Amino acid sequence: MPHYILGIDGGGTSCRAAVADAKGRILGRGKSGAANILTDPDNALIHIVGAATAAFEEANIAPSEIGSASALLGLAGSNVGDAVHYVQGRLPFAKADIESDGLIALQGALGDSDGAVAILGTGSIYIARQGSDVRYIGGWGFQIGDLGSGARLGHALLQESLLAFDHIHPSSPLTDAVMAEFNSDPRDVVEFARVARPGEFGRFAPKVFAFAEHNDPVAITLLRASAQTIDEALDVVVARGSRRLCLLGGLAPLYRPWLAKRHQPLFVEPEADALTGSVALAAKRFAADARERA
Amino acid sequence: MPHYILGIDGGGTSCRAAVADAKGRILGRGKSGAANILTDPDNALIHIVGAATAAFEEANIAPSEIGSASALLGLAGSNVGDAVHYVQGRLPFAKADIESDGLIALQGALGDSDGAVAILGTGSIYIARQGSDVRYIGGWGFQIGDLGSGARLGHALLQESLLAFDHIHPSSPLTDAVMAEFNSDPRDVVEFARVARPGEFGRFAPKVFAFAEHNDPVAITLLRASAQTIDEALDVVVARGSRRLCLLGGLAPLYRPWLAKRHQPLFVEPEADALTGSVALAAKRFAADARERA
To answer: What keywords would UniProt list here (chains A, B) (predicted)?
Structure first.
């Protein structure tokens, strides 16, 4: 009986799974709905199993084999013990290791080489790996962390638009465009911001990049400040020895030209995606099991 | 029958009232509980009437006279129409005008002269008056406004403490002290910040001033940045003609030495408090009524 391994990339939008043989060769892939173990662990479980089942189906393997598979799951919220224990105890796999979504992204991007990833999306976090040593820097969420993230950049834009409205800072086509979106009424901006979630602030981030391309002075000021926070975090991972830096996340290609010259020679393109990374980690992690069975 | 006027200063902690004769000479004062018309309008009404009744009692005037008094109320949240209409329609006074808490503070601080006040407490707002023209600058609340406020300064300190924890920015005795308060666990800081209200962030602000006095480099950096936001707002009111600036609020005496040299010659001490200001505004506003009756 062959031993199958599963790599699973579970996120707030969707969950993807790949089934592979013991050497990590992918046999089939599957996808399902959101797998947010913090806000909705029961649906996360359903979607994890759904994605795994779909992967087995694509590979023409009997779904009953799921119960004997070893799975490595990369999940957001993996640092919150309660949620992890709840989910881990209910998974139908023979073995299941839960790691961070960042770690499988790093494995996918860098393969087995040392280096660091900067994940620049709605949030921001940096992960550096040297051999078996993995370190997380930043993150901490929108409220007092995630500097350089889309949410923080969008937040800064709204704040700057109010400062421009009050003539405390100069206005620009960008701040004019923001105010126009809110009926030129600062109270509408305040009301939006009072209840907005990080993703809703983040939707303003691409606007900053777009206006900066047309030399909007406020956009350039905001982007320089935001890029500086990223450069400062990259300085830490470089000082600790990382010589390959991979920018990931939706804002990665937008930010890259705004980052410091000193970092440009260190940037590398990602080798593969997070799902591939989860399979590769699973293959390494469960290689011993496979040898035992062989 | 004499015509009495009432000045009322209603805030989130307490409500104060003063009854005066038609010329604005204060005859008695009273105090009661919180008068937050946004979060609890019914209790605000009870406490407004309670403070007024206490003022009439101290002045040895029959409480039944309250119904013929003209009142000017300075209330936080006076820019929210629904709350104002609800409260105004239920007040027992012959006349009742509701103004902002800031306007009565300005009237108290500057008397009838032109100038501006900067109110620096948990929040921040600037009000400038030239003759009958009154302009508000800033404010807008903690989420995307209130720069320089205690809440924003405390927030900046927590963020900086996490940056120091990650070695992205230098640590200092101040950031060490903050982390020690949170068991040196950044997750505890994040959890606090996730649910903290502005006042809870604001409680960290005095610590920044205290450590800056002992030359803590992080405290000094944070305070300079925060003071700069105040100086920039003061530049706007000065550019519009204000030549007298009065700093009010709990952080006013702490901030003053950190503000720019160009503003120092313009600072004046407040003449009186907000309650006195509400009485003075009431006396001006209702002078015509008093003459009619005389």
So the answer is: Kinase, Transferase
